[in-house]
Amino acid sequence: MVSRVKKNRMKNPGLVSNKKKIFFATQSWHKSKGANYIQVKQMIKAFSKQFDIVYVILRTNLNSENFFTDNVNSHVINMRRCRLCSIIYTLQTLLAYIKQSRGGNFSLVYSRNILFSFLVSRLTICNHGLELHAGVRSKLEAWMLRKMYKKKVVLFCISESLQEHIRGVIGSKKGIISIPDAHNFPSLNREVYTKEILSKEVINVGYFGKLSPQKGLATIVELLRIANKKKIQFNIFTPDERVLGPSDSLGVYEYIDHDQCMSRMLEQDILLLLIEPQGGIADISPYTSPLKLFEYMAIGKPIIASNLPILREILTSDKDSILVENSAEKIIKVILDLKDKSSTRDLIARNAKILAKKHTWGNRINKINKSFKESVL
Q1: Residue 96 · residue 56 · CB < 8 Å
Q2: DSSP code at position 57
Q3: Strands across the sheet with 176-178, in order?
Q4: Is 154 helix (H, G, I), strand (E, B) or coil?
């Protein structure tokens, strides 16, 4: 790692005298009031505060005007225009980025597309950091990662499991860093924790996010079937309510604006997070780092989550969460147990909130900067 950094500096003396940090991202969303829109906006703004120049290519059907209102060094290209215009604007952004990166000592490419990142890294000579969100799915991807690593790229993985996977692909441990995702919820100044639900007739259990087989859809459908008999109200905030059948115990809401997520989460007695392994190359369960997990933790409410290795990297069952098998009957039992045990509810909610303070976007960016410096020196 040291030798390749010295080689880069010899090629470009400007790395020492004209230091810049450049952030380059490709992101996408589709709903103007969707959580993904706000999350992406908050994430990029958080990075822009610590980077000198920001380039962003947005794949969206929305207008990105005034996306950055507080950073004059931010350059946004909106991919909602015609295909030809998008290609031209994208090339212009890439060329500007390449020109600027020749004077920078650190460029973080935030993309889930290995091919795109590979092309960017081959066209620049500054040190790169590439953030990975998925495992290697082909021999071509493995080859590109090895080439990037040999050249100058530090690889940031969103989980320890993904880190081990990438280390196996690369054949080295240096410069492959595990940094989980984070939240951007403001710190709550008051003790919220849990409501007194012992005397309540109905327990409110909240689920936030999309519904898919990998997000435990089959388990949720079964939960709705039996929940009404147990006086449990499931409030599901999702754009995918059409995939669920009618249920007296279900409160289905539209995909709410992310600014409303905190207040809606605070209305719940318990928060639910499910991940269901599916197998195959498209399976996200071995390596994922759900953003929603860190937002749940910041709220200060009891969390029930799938008992999977990827979640055990962050959570500890019976301390800051209750980890349970993806079984409707077992989840119902945990919910009823929490209803009767106020001390357990408050303990895991309080510990989760304390843990969430370590996983903010600000702390995450600081860790990226620190890890990068340690990897290249």
Answers
A1: no
A2: E
A3: 74-78, 53-60, 21-29, 106-110, 128-132, 153-157, 176-178
A4: strand
Quick one: 75 and 168 in the same domain?
yes
Structure token pair of residue 6 = 């010295």
Tokens of 364: 């995450």
What pLDDT score was predicted for residue 353?
A: 92
Residue 367 φ then ψ, to 5°: -70, -40
User: Residue 199 is encoded by which pair of tokens?
Assistant: 């005397």
For residue 274, the enclosing domain spans: 193-358
Question: Do 215 and 208 form a contact (C-beta atoms < 8 A)?
Answer: no
What would the mean pLDDT of 235-262 be, rounded to a whole number?
Answer: 69
Q: Give pLDDT, residue 3.
A: 33
Predicted confidence (pLDDT) per residue in 117-127, tens digit: 787 777 766 66
Number of domains the chain is built from: 2
For 44, residues 6+ apart whose C-beta sits below 8 A from its C-beta are 23, 25, 27, 54, 56, 68
Considering the domain boundaries, does residue 12 fall inside one? no
